[in-house]
Amino acid sequence: MDEVAAGSAAAVADLRGSLRNAKGQLLAPLGDVIVAVDGQSVRNSFDVIRLVAAKRPGETVTLTLWRDRQQVKVPVTLLKRTVG
């Protein structure tokens, strides 16, 4: 994940974003990498968005992440979507 917005469902679930320096350059370690949503493999961020967008606020999805060189499953309860 590149960024985890404060107050978002990802932040509440303690997902980890990547760190960047003042110039916007990516620093190590990278953040969580989402590899599946509810057991369905994803290839890119568009797959993640598509699968999560099919759910309703209040539902819980299980994200399979690559974190610290191992797979981790994290439940994320979706919040109401906001524009902006």
What's the short version?
The chain is of the alpha+beta class and 84 residues long. It contains two helices and six strands; from the N terminus they run αββββαββ.
Explained architecture:
By secondary structure, the chain is an alpha+beta fold. The chain is built from 2 helices and 6 strands; from the N terminus they run H-E-E-E-E-H-E-E. It has helices at residues 9-12, 45-53; strands at 19-20, 26-27, 33-37, 40-41, 60-67, 70-77. The strands form 2 sheets. Strands 4-3-5-6 form a 4-stranded antiparallel beta sheet. A two-stranded antiparallel sheet has the order 1-2. Strand 5 (60-67) and strand 6 (70-77) form a beta hairpin. It is globular, with a radius of gyration of 13 Å. The mean pLDDT is 87.
Order of secondary-structure elements: HEEEEHEE
DSSP summary: helix tally: 2
- What is the multimeric organization of the chains shown? single chain
Class derived from helix and strand content: alpha+beta
- Morphology call: globular
What average pLDDT do the residues reach?
87
Whole-number radius of gyration?
13 Å
What is the beta-strand fraction? 25-35%
Largest sheet: 4 strands, antiparallel
Q: How many strands appear in the DSSP assignment?
A: 6
Helix amount: 10-25%
How many angstroms does the end-to-end distance come to? Answer: 19 Å
Sheet with most strands: strand arrangement? 4-3-5-6
What are the low-pLDDT stretches, counting only 5+ consecutive residues below 50?
A: none
